[in-house]
Amino acid sequence: MATGGPTMTPALTWDGRSLRLLDQTLLPGEETWIDCHGAADTAAAIARLAVRGAPNIGIAAAYGLAREIERAPADDAVRAAASVLRAARPTAVNLAWAVDRVQAAALAVAPGERAAVARHEAETIHAGEDAASAAIALLGADLLAGSRRILTHCNTGALACGGTGSALAVAIELAQRDDITVLACETRPLLQGARLTIWELRRAGIDHELLVDGAAAGLIRRGEVDAVIVGCDRVAANGDVANKVGTYAHALAARAAGIPFVVAGPTSTIDASIAGGEEIVIEERDMDEVRHAGGALLTGADTPCRNPAFDVTPAELVTALVTERGIASPVTRESVLALTGAAVPAEPRA
Ligand code: MRU
Question: CATH class for domain 12-130?
């Protein structure tokens, strides 16, 4: 059992004026911090995954826009900067959600007041995501009480979210209560599990084992996993979940074995404007990410590859969606929209 509170390194710092990001592309080998001064450099850091994870992409973009507004508070400049940030990555809805909030707050006041208002809105978003993480940790740990071998995918700790994370925050809370082992999938091609989740688990003093992604289904089938918990990048109104590529395979394996497949994330990740997962834009990244591993070229430099960064798990495979506002289970349009406070539209007529 882990004792004492976990030691987590935040992905970004904000001192009221300046934004610094821990360059996650260099972890775990090197802890290098980069300064971001506005929209363009923050968007570039998001696009190359120096900062990543749906909630932290939103928080970084909010601060990046606030910094830009200090220099250029005119209407057109604010809208242009917001567009640059929104375009940095397509799948995580938290990015557009946070940028829209800062833009709306800024444009609602006179240009001379915009910098202060934008900073305040970004800080409010950040504080809200920190609080969401804390609530998710407690709710998720209550839900998974008794599960001791927890499998997870990608990275969902403090490097990805406010507070101590989303899915990983649940595992960290469980580890304060019980002896657990976290089985972390390496998460090809960029190895967020191997590089980042293991780094965070070591620092938090939580027992862990690293798996290649392809090992997960077999271990689940052999009864070596009690529950799977992952984060999310966008949840459609019907509860379909986009998350790091490979998540869907874990959900299928969990369903076949009859173990819980739980998704954790703040309500900022729910996109009530889209009906189902087929509408989620899946980011396709550079083929070179697939051609390389550990810095070495694996194959021909021009080998054709597919590199979708995310996949969609249908709601019927998700046992529970854990948010700061409560748990949707079963995951249905009604239970998901109840978490957002959005009205449940009438079913279309047959
Ligand atoms: O491409 P990444 O590293 O930004 O992908 C991150 C994930 O898929 C996480 O699981 C997701 O953002 C949830 S973090 C709470």
Answer: mainly alpha
